[in-house]
């Protein structure tokens, strides 16, 4: 994030925050913390810096440490910068049975980085994750909100090309590709 | 094919929209409940139905509902557990994605029975797009008068919200879920008090799985007794099974409880047999936490009777020769599978997901993962196999929540039924090369 960029939600997001807070009884607004951290991660470059967590805490009128406590517990929150496309490959049983390791190896070779690393252009990060509820369509990976299932190495190549061409950040809150039912 | 109560219309185009869902008889249970039943009579119907929690533990739902404390002037809550993080399980996602209104309808009808003015659907963060689908369905329900103030002109008012998590298996445990819903880390609470007495924000709360709440709809529509006629013995009704692994037709199947396991695996109506015509080696029948069974024991009980898809039959023989229906995450492995490596993926999972509050779970899961890694790396000894057994045996019953046990059981079962594989790994480490090792062990030719 550029050092001089001001940490402040857009008006639209701020309105959404206040709408979220109203879902809970009076005084129980801390319940909005996780949803708002998601919004913050999406709006501020895909990760939660200490400044961003402080900002979220100020909206909810809680201590910054409370936001950090929560952010550090949940695996979807990134406490360090990640690539624009965070490739999250499931590595648990069903996906492993169906070749998830081949997918990871292929990604590592194609992108020239290891699991856990980010490409120098900041475009891709490879991460292995635990079961994402897509075991019947294994192997799979999630990038932002999108599930890519029944992966083959060719499919992976096409996806990488498409993401690279678009150059856009993919975030969890951004339900972009509609899934055919 | 057996009876379908939840997925009857799952392939009807547009069933995810309000209009088509309503055309197919949707929201009838709300009408029936609010206009012709009392909360007490509704709880009675659910008791009669014999419905058991579909989240994993199989606790009778009617009984759970009747435990809900009702101190005057205190809010009560219904919370739907849509965390679905048990490896091998993806049925709730399927149901919510395809027929979101079925869950919304179940939330309203169930909330009426419990006297809850608000309810929350806690869904795992990774299912963000499903949360959007649910929010749209809820909006449509409000627009058509099924949610909000004075529903159908009665004095029952209700609001339903979707709450997203952020990636933590432990938040499927009901008290961790409530902590998370309160905006905190997902650390399970010490029980008692149980949520029925002090749950969300200290108020009496019922936490139920997505499928459990959806099943309330056919129970109210048809009556508890009719529902109890379906299934077998104390396993009433239908169950959604998520089938994955080495089968020809992975997917979500609704089956009448009591279907023979063999039919489920081999029939074209369900899994369609093992891929490539290979041999079945083992099955994890109810999600990663339940004991794995070798082919002989999953197809037939130790008594030689056909094993059925039911709570009782899968449990037959206890953990020595049986397993559990659990969440219905049915993972099938063919004869090329390394049981040691599969177990490693489970142990790594539990270590990653332990919340860290209890030493036996926090340390035990880490040790089990490390030892399995060592064995897979070719540096294991026979003493390591014994140590694994020893560690798993020291977790059960010594932790705040059942995640500890869920981590221990798969280790115990893998060693119990496949000890020779572990021994082969430590005796012949030179052969360990992922799958190749198992081709050799089973005298198979690599494809
Ligand atoms: C570690 C752990 C994870 C769990 N995960 C889930 C889950 O993802 N979904 C679920 O419905 N129940 C899960 N449960 C069970 C819940 O604690 C609870 O029993 C269930 O939601 C009750 O609903 P039911 O009676 O309708 O099954 C989990 C339990 C444990 C110990
Ligand atoms: S058993 Fe494990 S997950 Fe459960 S409370 Fe203890 S440390 Fe946390
Ligand atoms: S094991 Fe990969 S999505 Fe479930």
Explain this structure to me?
The complex is a heterodimer of chains A (181) and B (447). In chain A, helix 2 (33-43) crosses helix 3 (50-60) and helix 3 (50-60) packs across helix 4 (64-71). Helix content of chain A is 40%, strand content 10%. Chain A is elongated. The longest helix of chain A has 14 residues, at 153-166. Chain A has a 4-stranded mixed β-sheet with strand order 2-1-3-4, covered by helices on one side. Chain A starts with 10 loop residues before the first helix and ends in a 15-residue tail after the last helix. Chain A folds into 2 domains: 11-73, Orthogonal Bundle (Arc Repressor Mutant, subunit A); 85-166, 3-Layer(aba) Sandwich (Glutaredoxin), CATH 3.40.30.10. In chain A, a hairpin with a 2-residue loop joins strand 3 (141-143) and strand 4. Chain A has 181 residues and is an alpha+beta fold. Chain B has 447 residues and is α/β, with parallel strands linked by helices. Chain B has 3 domains: 18-228, Rossmann fold (3-Layer(aba) Sandwich); 232-334, Ubiquitin-like (UB roll) (Roll); 339-441, de novo design (two linked rop proteins). Helices cover 44% and strands 12% of the residues of chain B. Chain B has helices at 18-23, 28-36, 39-49, 61-66, 91-98, 100-114, 128-143, 174-181, 210-222, 224-229, 261-266, 295-299, 311-315, 318-321, 339-353, 359-376, 382-393, 403-427, 435-441; strands at residues 77-82, 118-123, 159-164, 205-209, 231-232, 235-236, 238-245, 251-256, 280-284, 292-294, 329-334. In chain B, the strands form 3 sheets. A 5-stranded mixed β-sheet of chain B has the order 8-7-11-9-10. The longest helix of chain B has 25 residues, at 403-427. The interface between A and B is large, with 45 and 59 residues. Iron/sulfur cluster (SF4) binds at residues 170, 188, 354-358, 361-362, 399-401, 403-404 of chain B.
């Amino acid at each position: 994030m550029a050092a001089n960029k001001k940490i402040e939600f857009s008006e639209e997001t701020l309105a959404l925050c206040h709408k979220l807070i109203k879902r809970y009884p009076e005084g129980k607004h801390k319940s909005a913390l996780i949803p708002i951290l998601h919004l913050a991660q999406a709006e501020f470059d895909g990760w939660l810096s200490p400044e961003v967590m402080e900002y979220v805490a100020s909206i909810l009128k809680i201590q910054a440490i409370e936001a950090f406590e929560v952010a550090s517990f949940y695996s979807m929150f990134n406490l360090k910068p990640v690539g624009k496309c965070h490739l999250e490959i499931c590595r648990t049983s069903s996906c492993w049975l169906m070749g998830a390791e081949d997918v990871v190896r292929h990604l590592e070779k194609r992108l020239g980085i290891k699991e856990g690393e980010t490409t120098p252009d900041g475009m891709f990060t490879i991460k292995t994750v635990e079961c994402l509820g897509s075991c019947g369509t294994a192997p799979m990976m999630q990038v932002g909100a999108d599930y890519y299932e029944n992966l083959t190495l060719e499919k992976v190549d096409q996806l990488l090309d498409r993401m690279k061409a678009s150059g856009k950040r993919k975030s969890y809150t951004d339900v972009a590709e509609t899934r055919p039912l | 094919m057996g009876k379908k109560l939840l997925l009857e219309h799952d392939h009807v185009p547009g069933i995810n929209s309000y209009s088509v869902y309503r055309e197919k008889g949707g929201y009838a249970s709300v009408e029936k409940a609010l206009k012709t039943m009392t909360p007490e009579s509704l709880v009675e119907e659910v008791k009669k139905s014999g419905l058991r929690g579909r989240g994993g533990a199989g606790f009778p739902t009617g009984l759970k509902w009747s435990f809900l404390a009702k101190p005057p002037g205190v809010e009560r809550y219904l919370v739907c557990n849509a965390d679905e993080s048990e490896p091998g399980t993806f049925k709730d996602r399927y149901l919510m994605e395809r027929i979101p209104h079925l869950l919304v309808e179940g939330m309203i009808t169930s909330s009426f029975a419990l006297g809850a003015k608000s309810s929350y659907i806690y869904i795992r963060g990774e299912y963000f797009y499903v949360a959007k689908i649910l929010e749209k369905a809820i909006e449509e329900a409000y627009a058509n008068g099924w949610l909000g103030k004075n529903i159908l002109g009665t004095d029952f008012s209700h609001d339903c919200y979707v709450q997203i998590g952020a990636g933590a298996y432990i938040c499927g445990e009901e008290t961790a879920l409530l902590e998370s819903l309160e905006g905190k880390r997902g650390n399970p609470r010490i029980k008692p008090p149980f949520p029925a007495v002090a749950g969300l924000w200290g108020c009496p709360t019922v936490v139920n799985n997505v499928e459990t709440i959806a099943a309330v709809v056919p129970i109210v529509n048809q009556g508890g007794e009719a529902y109890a006629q379906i299934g077998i013995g104390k396993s009433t009704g239908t169950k959604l099974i998520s089938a994955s692994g080495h089968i020809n037709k992975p997917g979500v199947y609704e089956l009448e409880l009591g279907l023979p396991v063999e039919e489920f695996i081999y029939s074209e109506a369900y899994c369609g047999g093992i891929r490539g015509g290979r041999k079945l080696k083992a099955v994890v029948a109810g999600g990663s936490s339940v004991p794995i069974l070798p082919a002989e024991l999953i197809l037939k009980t130790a008594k030689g009777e056909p094993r059925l898809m039911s709570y009782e039959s899968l449990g037959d023989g206890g953990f020595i020769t049986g397993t559990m229906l659990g969440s219905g995450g049915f993972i099938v492995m063919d004869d090329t599978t390394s049981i040691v490596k599969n177990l490693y993926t489970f142990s790594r999972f539990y270590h990653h997901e332990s919340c860290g509050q209890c030493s036996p779970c926090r340390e035990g899961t880490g040790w089990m993962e490390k030892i399995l890694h060592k064995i897979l790396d070719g540096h294991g000894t026979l003493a390591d196999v014994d140590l694994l057994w020893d560690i798993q045996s020291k977790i059960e019953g010594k932790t705040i929540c059942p995640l500890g046990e869920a981590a221990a059981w798969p280790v115990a079962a893998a060693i119990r039924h496949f000890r020779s594989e572990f021994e082969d790994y430590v005796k012949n480490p030179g052969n360990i090369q992922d799958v190749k090792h198992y081709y050799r062990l089973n005298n198979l030719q690599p494809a």
